[in-house]
Each structure stands twice: as structure tokens, then as C-alpha cells.
């Protein structure tokens, strides 16, 4: 790192960007290797040490006390004291000073929870700056921002650079990197795979980022697509912060085929799937299952209509950890025969089904009555897959079906997904692992900023896919990249910071 | 008492030291693995312990030994039991401090140590004996009955009092325990019980139908009104996200003041009395006594309470709604993803809780109270929270805790009558029991409880 430089770290999810930065900030300890600051090796044992050597960090998830004022948050951890009392006026003055010096307008007396996300982030930056740091780490700062807020942030970064601060900018968005970075380092699977100049063409960056890793092989025959099972047209869905996360998606999934949705996480895939499942209301558009409109159906009815759903986050949405394996295996089946009657449950039937599924799906456990939380991630995922595949399916939606799962289980889960397809079910696979999508899918839809940018064959070159994931359509280079269209300029007025109140 | 040992020890160390404790050398058989555990260096062996539970070729541990180990281990039953003992000891200290004669005697502790300690022991033991006699059985009465000097009703009187006090507590305890399993903290047992008492009491005093019709009608009205009071909370929470603790506290006040207003209305108030009391509840509306006798107050409320506990136990274990309720309680996100209607479940759970508490109020109104008054229920709703916590929010645990609190109440009355110890001491003891149960680490360190080998094995399994 040079002084006064913006250095971008580019890489896919789980490539090791955040881990590296947490080591720099002292939150994690290196197993090997050393860190040099101004040519001298340092040992950073905690954030305190990091700040001492001049390294500050703005986390992806803000570390602010929502009910405190801006000034209180800024001074937290280094309260200016005067005779045992906190020097509140001093703190306010300090915030004013710093925010003026770097051109970051802030009201020191505003309460954090009333501020929009972009301003909260500014508070984090000011907080780091008041600690007199020279190197600022921004961990995916734009992941939570609207396009306008992003542009503002990029402006701020240029200002800081002009003031002589160095910035490490972690992201996976090519556009932003090209806009501000002086130098780009691409990380993949924990290794530096290349350093590039921001003038390098985007295709080169995308190629570096996605890589040509070992292709996962899933043995499968040619798909035999039948009638359309799932039809999504013009679907618009808002995320928790009332932003248009899904912005007019059209999709058709036919029986007997796997449609894979590729894309960097946070481009609307989660919201799309949740909306199909009836877990998130849609703002416009429709969803049809076998020709029947299910747009406004309750999740229970969607499931009963023969939709299997493997949710993205198994510990939050997929399983009740305190429940036994047997109970989790009927979590969405307990109302139907033979497990449940009108009022009661048939525990014998539930146990019998558990024994059978544990054997069939090779769940490694001592007994069906163990709490599911005691299982390893792979075995937990097998429980979900076993449950969702234990009834005749019209449609299987699998979101990140193998995240955090060991290799053996990955193969098994993939083969079960292909088996469902061969049985004639329509399958929708969402994954941020490009390898997985390519291996499983018969067609690949690439999502970017809430839209399906293109639907391509899985044997499309990876560079092309990588470019699509970065929002560039290589086939229609003349057209503007998606995202700069008018629909993107989503008004973010009312209810933005109160979006979660509905929960 | 002043152990500085860490309470939570490594499973290996615990198992090894448990085997070495002086109480057990005779029980340690000459089995290689167990013998190996007696050497400090053999801790590695313990890693294999989980397998021991099932493998048939290992000799079974004797029941007595397992029992002893489990008894002095930090399982919840032992902790509860010891918490009760600890609370009684604290109660004894308070008794001594509160009694002028015994307190004065302590000035002469060094002149007359024997007399001081003797007096103290006599005072405390008599008081607690009176408590026992007033709540379970009085041996003197049994003796006199044997010699035909008194009636058998007198023998049953203490237990009847205990059951009378326990019935509403079991109901209000269940009213806290059920929502707790759905992740809801129902502070509103008091208000729901008041509404139940109003519903049941109104049917009881306004109608005079045959008993077989009026009593079920009254019980139903109580459950219904209490249930509505709870349902209101559930709907507000599900629809608006308002916190149930705040809602229930507010509704408690509203219900209490509503009762005060209600009994003054012309169609309810007793026209022959100047104080705030309703017309007397008709005999045809009263819950029948278990044994028809003027002395024995115990009524069918306790039977209803036991049935309710059995119903709740069934619901939580085998009921379809119970499954939804528990799923929502542990992980509402996963429940919603599995198609469970979380809001509906919350609303119905609170309605069920309200109905249970309402039955508690009804069992007072139609069981023991002669008429509706403002303070007829005392603190029965709030004590339900203690009962639920002591019973570890399990239905049969609530029954046990309700019976214990009922017995303490009945015994406290006897203690006040015969030993002159204020009945309020019982409230202190009840509070202390729950306090100690809620702070298990305290009880464990005082009694130096060890982690049971079985629990250690379980923990080892979970980690492996």
C-alpha cells in the first residue's frame, strides 16, 4: 500500500477478502506470515493495536449504538474526559472538526437510528478518522447502499485520498472498482491471483475473479423439458429496506429441467425466491404454478401445491435447532397424513419416517431424537433436503443448496436434485457459486440488480458469465448496462429506515 | 461452603474426581475402565465414555450408584429441591430475627449457648412443623381420630386446604408456561384471571339453573372471557408487533379497574350491603366440593386444573397445534418458512393462555369466594409466574410447583395461628425458592454440586 492510494480488493464471496482484513484489524490472528507497517513488522493483537499503528476499519455491518448520538458513537471507546466527566462538548467539537476537514457533513447531535444507512456509514468513517488512522479498510461498504449513496461514498473516498489517507476498498462490484481504485488485487480461494490496473478491461478482471477452477461434474443426462411449471412475469419485490430488490423478473421453468440462477449475492435472488414461496409480498407482477396464479398464496398453500423449498440460510429459515431430527423432518409435513390428523400428531409415523429418511439420506446421527442443532452443517442440510424431497414435487426451489457443506454431501445433494429433475419436476437452483450453477443447470439465468440480464446455456464461457454477473452484457455492448436504467432510480423516501418495523 | 473450585469443570476431570470421591470407593467395581479413571492421568479414557451407554459388553452401572451420582449432580430436580431447602433455611433466619423472645435470647449466646440454640431450634422447628401440619397432615389429629376423639374430616382438612389453594395457581402457572413455550412472556395472568372470575362469577350469581347446566356454563364463560383477554394481546402482537409484556401489564390494570367498576353496577352489586361486593354467588353455580362437608373446602377446581395440565402436556407433546406453538417459540423464521402461520399461532396461544388463567379466576369465584370483590384473587395471577418458573414451564412441573405453593400458603396460615409467625413469611419463602431456582449457579456453588456423568457424556456427544 502506498500513502494516498485507493487499493481495491476484488473477489467472490468466501474468497478470503474479509478474513484478510480482519487479520489486519487484529480481529483474527495469522497462522503464518507477517504484516509490515512502514517497513517494520508488527503484531496486531486486537483493534486497539491496529488503531495504534494507524489502521482503521469500517465493517460491513456497522458497529454503532443505535440510540446514541453521532458524537457519542464517535467518541465511544476513547471518550474525552474532563475530571471524571465525559466532555460532551469536546466530542461534538471533534466531530464537527473532522467532518469539516474531510468534507463529510454530519450533525453530531443526531441519533443514529434516525439516520439513513449511508449517513450511518459516514459516521463509521468519521469515527475511524478521529482515531488519526492513515489506512482505512472499507469492508464491502457499498453492499448496503443505494446507487446514489454509493456515488456519494465514492466521492468521499476520492476526498480522503486527496487528504493523504490510504484506503483498502473491498468489493465485488467491478463498476465501483474501476471508478475509484488506483490498484486492484484479485483474491480467489484465499490466494492472490493477480494484480491489475484499473484501466484493464472488465473482461480481464471478471476472468480473474471467477477463475477457471476445477469444474464440478454432476453426472446427468440430457434434460427433457416438458410443460412450463413455474412462470414468473414482471415480478417486483421490495427488500426489508423498501428498495426494489427484484425489479421486473420474467422466468419460466419447465418440468424436467434445472434452471440455475447465477449472480453475485445481493442482486435480488433471495427476495425472488422468498416471493415465489409467499414469504415476501410482491409489489407487481405474477407467479403461476402449473398455470394457476399463486402470487398471493400463503407459504403453507404453496408448499402443499407441491413446491419443495431448500432455504438459503438453513439455521435461520430451514431448521428448528432445538427440535429433534424427526420433528424437523416433518416441519412442513406435520399437517398431512400420516403424520398429523386434525388435532394430533402420530409420533410413531413421524419416528418411522425419520428412521427411513436418515437411512436413505445417510444422515450421520446417533438417533432420530437428537436435536438437529447437534449435527454438522452437511447433515443438517441433508435433513432439509430429505424433508423437501419426501413428497411428490412439482417444483423444487433450492437456494444455496450446498453452502457450508462438505464435499461428500455436496455430491449427494446434487445427485438428488438431478434425480428430482429426471422424475419430471421443475427445479430452480439459486447459488452464488458459479461452479454449482453451471454443473447443475440446463439453463443459466444471470441476475444483476434485480433483473435477469440474460438466460444462457451452461456451457457458455466463464468469462462471459463473469461479465454478466458484473452487469455487463457482452453480446449487446452497445446497450447500456442494466442498472443505469430509469427503474433503478428507486425513490427511497418514506419508511426507509423503518422498513423492518413490519416484522 | 467457601469452595473456590470452578463450578463448570471439564467433563473428564469431573468424571474422574466423582469416581475418586470418598463416598464411592466401595461402589467402584474392579472394571478396568473405571479403575483406570481413578488415576489422574487416565483422563483420555473418558473420551470414550459416551459409547458406554449403549455397548452391551460393559457391565451396567448399578442403579444405586447412578442414582447417587444423579442426586448430587446439577440436574434441575436436585437444584429445585436444594433451592427449597435453602429458602427454608433463610426463612428460619428471618423467623428468628422477627421474633422478639428468640432474638433477645441471642444476646446470651456465649453465656447460655445451649439454651440459645435450643430455644432457636425449638421455635423454628415448631413453626415449620405447624406448617407441615397445616398443609399435609397433622399426626395429632390422626391419633385423635384413631381414638375416635375427632372426625375424619379433620384429618383431611390440611390437604383439602392445600388443594384449594393450589387449583388457581396451577391454572395461572399453565397460563404462563404455555406461551413461554411459544416464546411469549405472559405477565397478564392476573388480568386474564380477573376477567375469568368476572365471567364465571356473573353466570354464578345471575342465573339459577340446575347445577349440571349452570356450573359448566360458568366455567365456560370464565374460560371464554379470559381467553378473549389473552387473544386481544395475541392479535395486537401479531398484527402490530407490540410487545406482549407491555400489553399484558396494561391489560392487567384495565381488568383490575374494570372489576372495581363492574361490581358496583346495579345488576351486580349486593343491594343489602354498603361495601363494594357483588350479590352472593348462587349455590347452583358453585363448583361442587370434592367431599360435601362444610369443613373441606376442596372443590372440583383442582380436578379441572389437573385435567388442564394433562391437556397441555398432551398438546405440547402430541398436539398439532403444540407442534406449531413450539416451532414458533424456538424459531419463528423457520416456522414461517415451513408454512406455519406465525401470527395466528401467537394469537391462539395467547387465547389459550388467557382461557387457562380465566379458569383460574373462575375456580376462585365459583370455588371458594362467596361473592365478587375487588381483591378476591389476591396475587394469584402473578404467583402463576413464579409457579411456572419453578415448574420449569413444563405442565407437570407446574402442577408440582402449584401444589407446593398451595401447601406453603395453607401451612403458612396454620403457622401464623399456632406459632405466631407471620403468614407473610411464606411469601418471602416462595420468592426465595424461585430466586434460588432462577440462579442455579448460586445453588450449585453453595452445595458444591458436580456435573453428572450422564450430563457430561451428553455434552461430549453434542460437541463431537
UniProtKB/TrEMBL annotation, chain A:
<keyword id="KW-0067">ATP-binding</keyword>
<dbReference type="InterPro" id="IPR027417">
    <property type="entry name" value="P-loop_NTPase"/>
</dbReference>
<dbReference type="InterPro" id="IPR003439">
    <property type="entry name" value="ABC_transporter-like_ATP-bd"/>
</dbReference>
<dbReference type="GO" id="GO:0005524">
    <property type="term" value="F:ATP binding"/>
</dbReference>
<dbReference type="InterPro" id="IPR003593">
    <property type="entry name" value="AAA+_ATPase"/>
</dbReference>
<protein>
    <submittedName>
        <fullName>ABC transporter</fullName>
    </submittedName>
</protein>
<dbReference type="Pfam" id="PF00005">
    <property type="entry name" value="ABC_tran"/>
</dbReference>
<dbReference type="GO" id="GO:0016887">
    <property type="term" value="F:ATP hydrolysis activity"/>
</dbReference>
<feature type="domain" description="ABC transporter">
    <location>
        <begin position="230"/>
        <end position="474"/>
    </location>
</feature>
<feature type="domain" description="ABC transporter">
    <location>
        <begin position="1"/>
        <end position="214"/>
    </location>
</feature>
<dbReference type="InterPro" id="IPR017871">
    <property type="entry name" value="ABC_transporter-like_CS"/>
</dbReference>
<keyword id="KW-0547">Nucleotide-binding</keyword>
<dbReference type="InterPro" id="IPR050107">
    <property type="entry name" value="ABC_carbohydrate_import_ATPase"/>
</dbReference>
<feature type="region of interest" description="Disordered">
    <location>
        <begin position="469"/>
        <end position="503"/>
    </location>
</feature>
UniProtKB/TrEMBL annotation, chain B:
<keyword id="KW-0812">Transmembrane</keyword>
<feature type="compositionally biased region" description="Low complexity">
    <location>
        <begin position="11"/>
        <end position="24"/>
    </location>
</feature>
<dbReference type="GO" id="GO:0005886">
    <property type="term" value="C:plasma membrane"/>
</dbReference>
<dbReference type="Pfam" id="PF02653">
    <property type="entry name" value="BPD_transp_2"/>
</dbReference>
<feature type="transmembrane region" description="Helical">
    <location>
        <begin position="421"/>
        <end position="443"/>
    </location>
</feature>
<feature type="transmembrane region" description="Helical">
    <location>
        <begin position="215"/>
        <end position="233"/>
    </location>
</feature>
<feature type="transmembrane region" description="Helical">
    <location>
        <begin position="77"/>
        <end position="97"/>
    </location>
</feature>
<feature type="transmembrane region" description="Helical">
    <location>
        <begin position="191"/>
        <end position="209"/>
    </location>
</feature>
<keyword id="KW-1133">Transmembrane helix</keyword>
<dbReference type="InterPro" id="IPR001851">
    <property type="entry name" value="ABC_transp_permease"/>
</dbReference>
<keyword id="KW-1003">Cell membrane</keyword>
<feature type="transmembrane region" description="Helical">
    <location>
        <begin position="396"/>
        <end position="415"/>
    </location>
</feature>
<keyword id="KW-0472">Membrane</keyword>
<dbReference type="GO" id="GO:0022857">
    <property type="term" value="F:transmembrane transporter activity"/>
</dbReference>
<feature type="transmembrane region" description="Helical">
    <location>
        <begin position="298"/>
        <end position="317"/>
    </location>
</feature>
<feature type="transmembrane region" description="Helical">
    <location>
        <begin position="338"/>
        <end position="359"/>
    </location>
</feature>
<feature type="region of interest" description="Disordered">
    <location>
        <begin position="1"/>
        <end position="24"/>
    </location>
</feature>
<feature type="transmembrane region" description="Helical">
    <location>
        <begin position="166"/>
        <end position="184"/>
    </location>
</feature>
<feature type="transmembrane region" description="Helical">
    <location>
        <begin position="245"/>
        <end position="264"/>
    </location>
</feature>
<protein>
    <recommendedName>
        <fullName>ABC transporter permease</fullName>
    </recommendedName>
</protein>
<feature type="transmembrane region" description="Helical">
    <location>
        <begin position="371"/>
        <end position="389"/>
    </location>
</feature>
